[in-house]
Design goal:
With 943 residues, the chain is of the alpha+beta class. It is built from 24 helices and 27 strands. Helix 2 crosses helix 4 and helix 14 runs antiparallel to helix 15. The longest helix is centred in the middle third of the chain and has 32 residues.
């Protein structure tokens, strides 16, 4: 039987490259297309969920807003209607859980308003332990209706409550539809104060960090819970350990309730979230009409949550402590989830680092001994040196060119990646392809009297494969060190690439060894070579004469004439010996191509797709432009690197065509405006009101609210601040606002949001109003109604303690900032005893305290303690403030709205400056909140 493969020629290699890359890239990008929901939704109802979504995300509803109460009431009605049908379903409207906890920089007191649901499992052994928690938050930020963050998560939980009520599992399911996630994960902390938090040992958290598309498995704690996300449970799994690595290393500057459940309750769990379309995140565009995928996006989350949730509730393997170990995981074309323990990758890498080179060196030594018998002489030294060095030259030159392109991009039009990330990736990849492959394909000319023609491309292919393996070995060593020291699992690409190169090198060496039976008995030079000129056959070598008019045009046709010989009469006839030899030929390049190209290109394409979608619009958050472009450049280089051994036979026309597109797109990217309504530039807004007369240091009064009602502070100053990228904020955005005209605007780098600048000026179109229950104005109040934002009283109770009472108007949120001395202890009257474990106050203390109540107009009474470092009885000073997060246009039409709070109505806060911003901002700009309060009223204190 004849065994033949395509020859190592320009046509074969170019075709393989084109077909492979077209198919791979098509499949990778096709997986972003969301399918329609099936007609048989197997117990879920997309129509019902989408209807719930419209009610929940009708308007912004942050924790500190009246709209939030309306959303909570709607959710309660929905879960009560389900519980009424099933005796094993229990609902708690949790208005009791409260507590205190601290981070490294601030402390919190919070009163929760979570909606909790418990669906009893069929096995009584799991009623009080080993249950599963399902979590999503129903609050939004003040500047967004919250369709993906986190309305879709909430309506998915409503569907799961109904689904698991009908389809009971062994384990108990706990649902925490929590309130206050946007304000530093407070709702999850409040859940840990409730007795039901002791039931689950694993969780599934649903989140949104963008504007739709496919949800991705952001993070997972261990191999055990990741089993719930295998493709048999989730039909279209989308996951990658790289996102978990990014959270672990602090590359992603945000948090989810996942952190509270893992750190605070030691649960194992999954974090499922949207991540595409970051420019719309926390803006008015996080609304149903602007969601990427809309119903299809919602169905993707529902389907994944049901599959993973059912597995967590039913499969004991997902609760196996032996598998509570870090894992490596990634999906392939959203068809299959690849999953294995990180420790397995670590062990394999160590073994492969040691045995791989040893085995390969042994094979190469045997190959060298055998090939020594075939060599008549060596190539000229200068050509040999070039062939062994050009791989490294190509890498250095390519990386240098990429660095230059990154520099040009960052300086010329850096934000084009914001709206056109894949054009940027295409250009960077194309330039890498041309630079890298053309340098490797170039060979120095032969000497004029070189009478031996080596199989240049074939020999150089083997050289490049060996050098690529050497490079991969170095990278594998570094990745193994990273795994051992930092548990970074996202470097799996290096392992697969190195293994493929080892196999490619071994195949070539084994072929040489097995072909020894065709060699003469004694090691003597062989006088002939095969027609193809490929040493894969190790056929006879051919000596060439000086070119003449009768020299064949095609190399390899002299003497043997390409499979023919000349008889005595000069006519040509088939050389049967050559024919028989050719029939045995196996050209190993195709198998080497399969080993070295598809796997790393597939993995790199998946990583690039995820990386671009997740990071291209983080420039508006202050992320480094160079980092984003360097990441895209690295992905482009990784897509090209596996082609190195085959560069000699990639037709140059491919690179020439790519260069034409690069020039066209490059010129376009330098002149086009980078933002549009589909990819708006995000800026951040806040107003601050400085008061005088809101703070007293008199002894505490039992009639604090009544006393304060009679004392109206004076507004001393109002400042408006915007935070954004320096290239556009000061020159293109602020001038569009009428109230900023003629103002003295100060712009300085932001310390709160690194990478952005903050521009501030005094005044505005009108002063903000805190809303309902405002006291009438008098002559000392220059702005009329609404000046009474808050009142506070301070009493020093010892040399290092004080009691502070704050009464805010129409707000649930106040703050204390300590400038002189950090506090080492605080207790809020009415709170649970002590600090929540493990969130205690650490050295050197806290400089900020955030207070949250579940009711409006509540008095916060706080006892604080600080250190007397020098024994001089030094006091404490700082600022006291209250926050407002709602504005009139976002509250218009809200049920129970009215001017008389006594009769059940309310009057929401008014922020005229924000209304002006929404009316006058360019269509390519979107506004988001800077911090919890859109307006913060404050005054200095000193005790």
């Amino acid at each position: 039987m004849n065994l033949r493969t395509p020859s190592f020629s320009s046509g074969s290699v170019s075709s393989a490259v084109l077909v492979s890359y077209i198919v791979i890239l098509f499949l990778v990008f096709w997986e972003n297309v969301l399918p329609d929901a099936p007609k048989d939704q197997q117990g879920l109802s997309l129509e019902s969920a989408y209807n719930d979504l419209h009610h929940i995300t009708e308007r912004p509803h942050p924790y500190n807003s009246h709209a939030n109460d309306y959303v909570r009431q709607y959710i309660l009605e929905r879960v009560y209607s389900i519980a009424d049908e099933y005796p094993h379903v229990h609902v708690v409207d949790d208005l009791r859980s409260n507590g205190s906890w601290a981070s490294s920089s601030y402390g919190v007191y919070f009163e929760g308003t979570n909606v909790l649901v418990k669906v009893d499992g069929t096995n009584p052994d799991f009623w009080d332990k080993s249950g599963v928690l399902f979590s999503a938050h129903y609050d939004s930020v003040s500047t967004a209706p919250g369709t993906t963050d986190d309305g879709m998560g909430v309506v998915t939980l409503l569907q799961l409550i109904e689904y698991f009520s009908k389809h009971r599992t062994e384990r108990t399911a706990i649902f925490n539809i929590n309130n206050g996630e946007e304000d530093w994960l407070n709702g999850a902390h409040a859940f840990l104060q409730h007795p039901w938090s002791q039931i689950p040992d694993s969780f599934l958290n649903l989140e949104g960090a963008a504007s739709g598309g496919r949800p991705i498995l952001f993070r997972a704690t261990s191999s055990a819970v990741l089993r719930a996300f295998k493709s048999r449970n989730v039909p279209r799994p989308h996951a990658n350990v790289l996102s978990a690595d990014a959270f672990k290393r602090g590359a992603i500057r945000s948090g989810t309730d996942y952190e509270v459940y893992t750190d605070g309750a030691n649960m194992q769990g999954l974090d499922l979230a949207f991540y595409k379309g970051r420019s719309k995140y926390h803006t008015k565009f996080d609304a149903i009409p602007y969601t990427d995928g809309q119903e299809r996006s919602l169905w993707a989350m529902m389907e994944a949550a049901r599959g993973a949730g059912a597995s967590l509730l039913s499969e004991s393997a997902t609760h196996d402590p032996d598998n509570y170990v870090p894992a490596v995981y990634f999906d392939l074309f959203s068809v299959r989830l690849v999953l294995f323990p990180l420790n397995s990758l670590y062990i394999f890498n160590i073994i492969f680092l040691i045995l791989g080179p040893i085995l390969l060196i042994a094979l190469l030594f045997i190959q060298a001994v055998i090939k020594a018998a075939q060599k008549g002489h060596s190539e000229e030294h200068y050509r040999l040196i070039w062939r062994w060095s050009k791989f490294w030259v190509a890498i250095i030159v390519t990386l240098a060119v990429q660095a230059l392109l990154v520099l040009i991009s960052v300086k010329a039009n850096p934000y084009i990646v914001y709206s056109s990330p894949y054009i940027v990736l295409f250009c960077l990849t194309s330039v890498s392809f041309v630079t890298f492959t053309w340098i490797i394909a170039y060979d120095l000319p032969a000497a004029p009297h070189d009478d031996v023609v080596e199989s240049s491309a074939e020999n150089q292919k083997e050289i490049i494969i060996l050098q690529s393996y050497f490079l991969s070995w170095i990278l594998l060593l570094l990745s193994t060190i990273a795994i051992g020291k930092s548990e970074i699992g996202g470097l799996y690409l290096v392992t697969f690439w190195s293994l493929g190169l080892w196999l490619a090198s071994s195949v070539r060496s084994l072929d040489t060894i097995f072909s020894v039976r065709h060699l003469p008995t004694a090691f003597v030079p062989i006088e002939h070579r095969s027609r193809s000129g490929s040493p894969s056959s190790y056929g006879p070598r051919i000596h060439h004469e000086e070119p003449t008019e009768q020299t064949p045009l095609v190399q390899g046709q002299d003497n043997g004439h390409g499979g023919y010989t000349e008889n005595d009469s000069g006519s040509r006839e088939h050389d049967e010996s050559h024919k028989r030899e050719d029939e045995k030929l196996i050209d190993w390049w195709s198998l080497q191509f399969i080993f070295t190209v598809p796997a790393p290109v597939i993995l790199a394409a998946h990583i690039g797709n995820l990386l671009l979608d997740a990071t291209c619009q983080t420039l508006a958050d202050g992320n480094s432009k160079a980092t984003v472009y360097a990441s895209a450049s690295l992905i482009g280089f990784l897509l090209v690197l596996p082609l190195a051994p085959f560069s000699f036979h990639i037709h140059r026309s491919i690179g020439s065509i790519l260069l034409i597109f690069v020039v066209v797109f490059g010129i376009w990217s330098l002149v086009v405006f980078p933002f549009n309504p589909d990819a708006p530039l995000k800026i951040y807004f806040q107003q601050q009101v400085q008061l005088e007369g809101a703070v007293t240091t008199s002894p505490l009064s039992t009639q604090l609210s009544a006393v304060n009602a009679a004392r109206v502070p004076v507004i001393r100053n109002i400042t408006t601040s915007f935070y954004g990228v320096h290239e556009f904020l000061e020159s293109d955005i602020i001038p569009t606002l009428p109230s900023a005209h003629g103002k003295n605007i100060t712009c300085i780098p932001s310390t709160t949001k690194p990478g952005l600048i903050g521009c501030t000026w005094s005044g505005g179109v009108a002063f903000p109003d805190p809303g309902a229950a405002s006291t009438p104005h008098n002559e000392t109040t220059p702005v009329g109604p609404g000046a009474n934002f808050f009142n506070a009283q301070f009493l020093r109770t010892s040399t290092t303690t004080a009691r502070i009472t704050i009464h805010g108007t129409n707000t649930k949120n106040c703050r204390l900032y300590f400038d002189k001395q950090p506090i080492i202890k605080y207790v809020v009257q009415g709170s649970s005893n002590g600090m929540q474990y493990p969130y205690r106050i650490h050295e050197p203390g806290l400089k900020e305290l955030r207070l949250w109540s579940r009711e409006y107009n509540k008095d916060f009474t706080v006892d604080i303690e600080w250190r007397d470092n020098y024994g001089l009885g030094e006091g404490i000073k700082g600022r006291v403030a209250c926050e407002w997060a709602e504005f009139a246009s976002a509250s218009a039409g809200l049920p129970s709205e009215g001017e008389d709070p006594v009769n059940g109505g309310f009057r929401s806060a008014k922020i005229p400056m924000l209304e002006e911003v929404l009316a006058f901002l360019p269509t390519w700009v979107a506004v988001s909140k800077f911090t919890d309060g859109l307006v913060e009223a404050w005054e200095y204190f000193e005790v």
